[in-house]
Amino acid sequence: MSLVSKEQLKNEATYGLILLVIFIVLFKMLFYSESLLSIVRVIASLFWMSIIPGYLLMFYWRSKLNFLERIIIGSVLSMGILGTVSYYIGLLGLNVNLHYLILPLLIIACGIYLSYISLKHTPHKQEE
Amino acid sequence: MKFPKIKAEHIFLIIMLTILIWTGFANLWSNQLTHEHPYSYLAGDAFQHWVRTDGIKQTGNYRYRVDFQTYGYDDVIGDYPPILFHLAIIFSDLSNLPTFDAIYFLIFLSAILASFIMYLIVKDMNRHVAIISFPFMVLLFSGASYSAYTWGHWPSVMSQLFLVGIVWSIKNIDLKKSYLLIAAFFTASILTHTSEAIIGFFFVLFYLAVQLILKKDFKKKFKTLFIAGIISFITSLYYLFIFKNTWAFWQKYQFNIIKETGGSPTVQFWIYGIFSIIILVGFLISVVLLAQKKSNTTILSTIFFLVIGYTNYIGFHSRAFQIRFWWPIYLAPAIGITIYYGLKIIIKKWNSSYSYGLAFVLLLLFLNVGGVATAIPQIPSYQEFSTPGTMDPYRWQAYQWIHENTAQDAKMLFLYGDIYGQTNYLLSIKRVPYKIDFDDLFTSLQKNQSERYFIINIYGDNVNSYPYWKSPFKFGYHLRDTDEFEHGLKKDICDFDYYIYDKVSRDERLPQFNLLLASNFKNKGLEEVFSNQIVSIIKNPTRGEPCV
User: Which of A100, B351, B515, B527 could form a cystine bridge with B93, CB 3.0-4.6 A?
Assistant: First the structure.
């Protein structure tokens, strides 16, 4: 992995954390009757099932799309893939009540693998 | 590690996100995420989708529909596009929100995400147009558009999120392997609410036609879209086969013209008042730009979604009206185009502060801050609205009691209740519901106080006549095989295990009929097993024996 990519990953991890904090603060402000713990759990769920897998799936296109665009599109993409896989895996016999843990993990693993492959095959020039 | 430099755009987007959540569901939900019962559900369709979600959760998959939704049949094929329900279960399991809140949350999230994607699409054409356009999207949560959420057009809403995803990915068709993105969004749209995927297909045709006419890399783009089409066809093949033999079989295309949806509020173009004219001007500018061969995805989508909203005149029925619910997203670019290019004639040196300033003014208008929108005629605006909806804690308590204390196959009869006309609502008890015909109840009891036979109908999620597998590739339809469940027939009121009735009503006379029947039941030894301020439940331990 090149230095540029490592640096980009580090920076984007920071952006992700900032986003997490913004979401929690915003939701607590708007849903003030809800407990903080409950809000943290809801936001963490969104990150687990949608934002993190989406970010990793979109990392492949990092040189063409900025962080914000990848996060927004990635979240929707991840929801689409998660729902599709959940339907078919459910038909194959894996109870839907187990999907919340297994499937986002599976998509995250795929995302990490694809990111790794794309980093491995990307010349430094393009990343810069 | 680098802390990001804060830009005006970041602050603008955070403000927009806050406003969209606030107008979308923070107000509606009384600033709470978790509720005791289905909250802000204003129509039967909302209950239908939530009950379907719980049905899938109960069965563990969507191979078959849950039997309490299907008159007790346990082999009815899961024929509704499934993604929304699966996502709701996953989100509910993760977040600990009840399924009825989780599914609703995802619907609002879909609308908000789609607004942001549209912002990105327009930004690619012109950043200033994108900024000026964004405030109009607040109207997603006002007037007739709001019924998309509160009345339960949920699968269509989520599928339109994927449709906007399709438009975005076509804008980025030159990305390496963009066919993967297009295919993923198409598959998701097919499996969430198929009609939006069909509209997406028409958009692709429109896009390709324009590329062909303008000679813009047509072959390359056609190849990418063709590959995407093949992939999404393969990934949705199983469901498409079900769709072909259910929805496409029972709801064949028929040409007819309807001007309004029968059941829910209709978005009409002129509800945006003075902004309808601005949209129209933006639409005309888009057409002119297209004619001048200055096409881009924003222009194409603005033209396309205004036109597609009028396909109710060529037989698209409610599907056209469902697209109109999201006109504040699809047509927002037309607002930005008109205002920006109009002012650009006067102000030659445009800078970002003008765009943000205009966006701020538009936000004040659309949010009706200080009553400014109501003071000026013909300005559409958001109106604060909050409601618990049609469910209340008392009925919910009764239905939970039924769910926890009655046998799965218990026969339940609803007597009179103000809300029981919304028959999808009855499925909240998660047992096969029967309902007495109200008119027949009133007339029969007035004639004979100990009448035993009434018009009683069974209810369920009875779309597509309950399809089942006759053989691996052949479908049968339960409701075509039997007339056992025909509505309008007199049935024995004593042939039920439980009776559910309301003790209060908007019309004080109506519950008297319930109380008369209840007193007859009690005289025959039937026992009241549940009661609160609103609902009573009577148990019949000797089903079939004389009870009145």
Answer: A100
Q: What is the pLDDT of residue B507?
A: 86
CB A6 within 8 A of CB A124: no
Output the average pLDDT for chain B. 94
Q: Which residue in B has a C-alpha nearest to residue A42's C-alpha?
A: B95
**Whether B188 and A88 lie within 8 Å, measured CB to CB:** no
CA B222/CA B169 separation, integer angstroms: 14
Listed by start position, the domains of chain A span: 3-127
Number of H helices and E strands in chain B, helices first, is: 23, 9
Domain residue extents for chain B: 8-32+79-375, 393-539
Strand partners, B467: B477
- Tokens encoding B221: 């783009």
Give the phi and the psi of residue B333 in degrees, each rounded to 5. Answer: -55, -30
The one-letter code for the residue type at B327 is W
pLDDT of residue A128: 37
Q: Is B7 exposed, middle or buried (0-12, 13-18, 19+ CB in 10 A)?
A: exposed
Strands B412-414, B498-502: parallel, antiparallel or unpaired by DSSP?
parallel
Q: How far is B328 from chain A (nearest CA, A)?
A: 19
Phi, psi at B412, each rounded to 5°: -115, 130
**Does the ipTM surpass 0.90?**
yes
B201: phi then psi, degrees, rounded to nearest 5: -65, -40
Output the six-digit token pair for B131: 């900024």
What are the tokens at A49? 């099932």
CB-closest option in A15, A80, A104 to B184: A80
Rounded to 5 degrees, φ, ψ at B303 are -65, -45
Q: Which residues of B touch A99 (CB under 8 A)?
A: 86, 89-90, 93
Reported as a single tens digit per residue, the pLDDT across B498-515 is: 999 999 998 888 889 999
Q: pTM score, two decimals?
A: 0.95
Strand partners, B475: B469
